[in-house]
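Field: COMPLEX_INPUT
Field: COMPONENT_COUNT = two
Field: RESIDUE_TOTAL = 756
Field: MODE = joint
Values follow.
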Amino acid sequence: MNTTYDQLVNDLAPKKFGWRGNTWIAVLVIIIIIGFYSYIQQLEHGLVITGMRDYALWGIYISNFVFFVAVSLVGSLITAILRLSYVQWNTPLTRIAEIVAVAAIIMAGLTIIIDMGRPDRMLNLFTHGRLQSPIIWDVIVISTYLVISLLLLYYPLLPDFRILSKYFQKDAQVRKWYGRLSLNWTGNHKQRRIYSNSIRALSIMIIPVAFAIHTVTAWLFETTYRPGWDSTNFGPYFIAGAFVAGTSAVIIVMFVLCKVYHLENYITDNHCDKMGKILVLLCLVYLYFNLNEYMMPTYKSTEEEATHLRSLFTGQYARLFWTAIIGGLVLPVIILVFPQGRKPLPLFIVSLAVVLGAWWKRYIIVIPTLSHPFLPIQGVPESWRHYSPTWMEWSITFATLASALLIITFLVRFLPIIPIHETAQERNIVEPSSTNSL
Amino acid sequence: MEKENNSDNKTRRTFVERGLKAGLLTIASGALLAKVFGKSENKKSEETIELMSTDGTLLQVPLSAVEHTHEKKSNYNPREGFPNRKFVMVVDLAKCRNARKCQSSCNKNHYITGENAWIKIYKMQDNEKSAPYWQPTLCQHCDEPPCVKVCPVDATFKRRDGIVLIDNNRCIGCRFCMAACPYSVRIFNWAEPWQGETAEHTHYSPDYAGVPSQKGTVDKCDFCPHMIDKGELPHCVSACPNDVFSFGDMYEDTVANGSGQSFKLSKLLKDRAGYRLMENLGTQPSVYYLPPSDRVVDFEEGLKNYTEFKSVDKPEGV
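Field: COMPLEX_OUTPUT
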């Protein structure tokens, strides 16, 4: 691979969208507009437009929120953990992972506001916040994680912005913007020291914060007495599941970008192979936590737990439950242990199944528990016993998912998807006319 | 049961009067202790009055101490509650025949609309072999309330007099309290409550829940502080035709039912083996239940009012 510097920059610089890109954006925007309309209805009429009622008091807004938090964790895995363990091959994936993480964490924050009965009083969280409530912990760690994720996305971009500012010499406007964003990066010794030190510091910082966001999200449920949530396993169980969801989300984005931008020179079969192996490991860890989560209560079968578990194993939620476990975890492991299964296309398809399974898994965690309270459900309309989301609720949820994809698309349009500077360094490609980049 | 309170057949008003007095005594004796330990030399030359403490001993209390701590109505703060009181309720399951008057009175007086009810009467049966019974269930006003613990904005709070309330002007509608409550007593205003003019035009205070209710916030039983303030019993207590409910102050060790009978709380709980719901969770409820043994009513009688899926009776005019 004797790529020249110009060719490298040319390959990796952000490009204007063609008709496919514009159609994609149009579709996302339409979905968001429909969701926005539903949300206006919700603001006007209240949460009555959803399928939630006094027993099913949380629904897909909350399970979707958990999903977003889960996906956002991947930023810390791919960038931080792999970076700190001196893995080299992950360079082309770091930016994709950080972009996915930033989009997911922004949407997690917005989704939780959508679920609020009184979003107009959101500031009460800051003016009247009480530290013993896990929601306040969530507010603190999610905003911290958002800041660290943004920085971890931004710092490695500094040299790339400089490169892009040079590359887009003809377009004064674009050049000026990239120049500003590069914060006068010249690549001198001092700058490079600050640059690598701060990235390293952020990589270390983001790991405990990432663990905190998902542990706290697990605690939102675990702090209650309800069967199915009352588990000491919940923190690690959620984190294990989050890595599964996030990794497969990155694989999907990686595959699509690779195909659309013809990046086969940079995102190779080798990357797919490695990511596939990681996904197998993560799925196995998550399956292990699932075993703990469901086996021990089944063994004891206390009255409340047994009712709950019956609804999952053989009852109302059985189809969803087994599809999520088998289709979203067991089968992917079986497919991905074979080298053929880790080729780009099969890996992509498996990852889609894993992400879908992960979304429904959160539904399975949030909703069934609520239909088995300690006291019987009596004297309320029959429909209150079950939860089925309304189309408005779905449209709002789809709009949040579309918004996450739109944020990813927007960032992909303006940022180099693969770090140019780092790739050049790794491949020992030197900027021909450069005097100060060494 | 009958024997121990035939001499005690007081009206409701005397119960409350007695309550206030006893409350005063409690403060006074507390203040006395403080005085005694504070500056004992003042004690001799002062005029004293004779007061009885909660354990029945007579005390000489300086007059100034009594005046000093005198309970003033204007000091009442809906977030703090009534000073030196601790409200409790006793629900006698042996007497409940699912008449549902508690529910309709509660719904009417709190202007509850829609399918909601803050007090529910469950048809219970602990196991196949044991007899079924009716269990009126309202907010248990726990001393370790899980709902208050999880509230992110201090909208639901615990008062010094034991009552757990919701500030509907502060609630953000996250419904975490509803998830945390093991007794399923909290309800959410999913839509605009449309309560009619009476409720909607009244000035809001957290100690009169439902007046008015607000869309997007949580509601529940408030133990009727607005009635206690007037010296009356909560709506469910006075509405029950079977004297299932008794309400009172734990510090006075007295509870009274809707017919005006009063009982010594500790004796009642001891004699009838009173218990609390889900004691194992450590929530320390303020509502005690008397087991449905030696029943004075027939369980079957309640079945005609029982509707498994149909919602509550709605108050008239809504």
